[in-house]
Specification:
By secondary structure, the protein is an alpha/beta fold. The chain has 2 domains: 103 residues, THUMP fold (2-Layer Sandwich); 154 residues, Rossmann fold, CATH 3.40.50. The chain is built from 7 helices and 11 strands. Strands 7-6-5-8-9-11-10 form a 7-stranded mixed β-sheet, sandwiched between helices. A 4-stranded mixed β-sheet has the order 1-4-3-2, covered by helices on one side. Helix 3 packs across helix 4 and helix 6 packs parallel to helix 7. It starts with 29 loop residues before the first strand and ends with a strand.
Length: 300
């Protein structure tokens, strides 16, 4: 531990595509050096450390504080430091940063006079949001906060349903995920014994099956399988594995609840169950809008 909610390691596991593979981390980067001193000295030190690293490729800049009670009050200092660094380094805005072949230069501010500086390639980054706090903005008409979870999951996956694609939403009520999918002009099959919000029930692109997700079987394969069920995670994972074995969907986005204890072991068990069913490239993250749960994506 090198600060609140901040860990230094000699390495990190990576996914086959090269991205850092850490389920419970929000952000990460290769350490350059530790900074110390008053704000002006911090800015000068960070600029000196980052300048040579970012001189040969497009880069963005992110100055953030770890999400902890001791460091959250430092957000104004982090913003001021980022502005001072941007005047010295002229980074690209994060929204324009290429997802391949660019660098994300970062400073993690751990105290008013101390921080850590380094970089990560954008294709490796856990997140392009400052400190991994991907605050998703969705319309005011959403049925529940779950709409933010699905939007963050699709942003992390890097692709989402297109117009006309068929999406099955297991555990759909009250309709937060279905609403977000309809906003993308997808066709939605909502599965839940409970009722959805009335305007969603009437939507011409949605069909509601008021049955348990465990008893539902689709009439034809879907493009996407979505699942956000408040149920025992291993049983849900076994259900999702059945969908892979029967090739009922091509892509998976699921939110799986975690127990109070042995969360890491549970994540390993869930991955094994999903892979055993035939899902490939199984990725798991506890995203910013997740609580005691993880988001899982996979492909056939």
């Amino acid at each position: 531990m090198i600060g609140p909610a901040l860990v230094r390691s000699r390495g990190a596991p990576v996914e086959p595509g090269g991205a850092i593979d850490l389920v419970f981390a929000r952000q990460g980067f290769r350490l350059g050096r530790e900074l110390g001193g008053e704000p002006a000295a911090l800015a000068e030190g960070a600029a000196a450390a980052l300048g040579p690293l970012v001189s040969t490729r497009p880069f963005g800049l992110s100055v953030w504080v770890p999400d902890a009670d001791a460091t959250n009050p430092l957000l104004p200092e982090a913003r001021a430091l980022e502005e001072a660094l941007a005047r010295r380094l002229t980074p690209l805005p994060l929204v324009e940063l290429p997802r391949q072949g660019a660098l994300l230069a970062q400073v993690a501010l751990t105290a008013r006079d101390r921080g850590w500086v380094g970089t990560v390639r954008t294709e490796e980054a856990l997140s392009l949001a400052p400190g991994g706090r991907a605050r998703m903005r969705v319309g005011g008409e959403r049925p529940s906060r779950a709409a933010r979870k699905i939007e963050e999951a699709l942003a992390w996956l890097g692709v989402g349903p297109g117009p006309g694609e068929v999406c099955v939403d297991l555990g759909a009520a009250p309709g937060g995920w279905s609403w977000a999918l309809l906003e993308r002009r997808a066709r939605v099959v909502a599965v839940d014994p409970a009722r959805l919000r009335p305007d969603l029930e009437r939507h011409r692109s949605l069909v509601h099956h008021a049955v348990s997700a465990f008893s539902y079987a689709p009439e034809e394969p879907a493009d996407w399988l979505f699942c956000d069920m408040a149920w025992r995670p291993l049983e849900v994972a076994q259900l999702l594995a059945k969908w892979a074995r029967r090739r009922w969907a091509r892509l998976l986005v699921a939110n799986l609840k975690l127990p109070m204890k042995e969360k890491a072991r549970t994540v390993d068990d869930l991955r094994q169950v999903l892979a055993g069913g035939g899902w490939q490239r199984v990725r798991a993250r506890q995203l910013y809008h997740d609580r005691d749960e993880i988001t899982v994506t996979a492909h056939l």
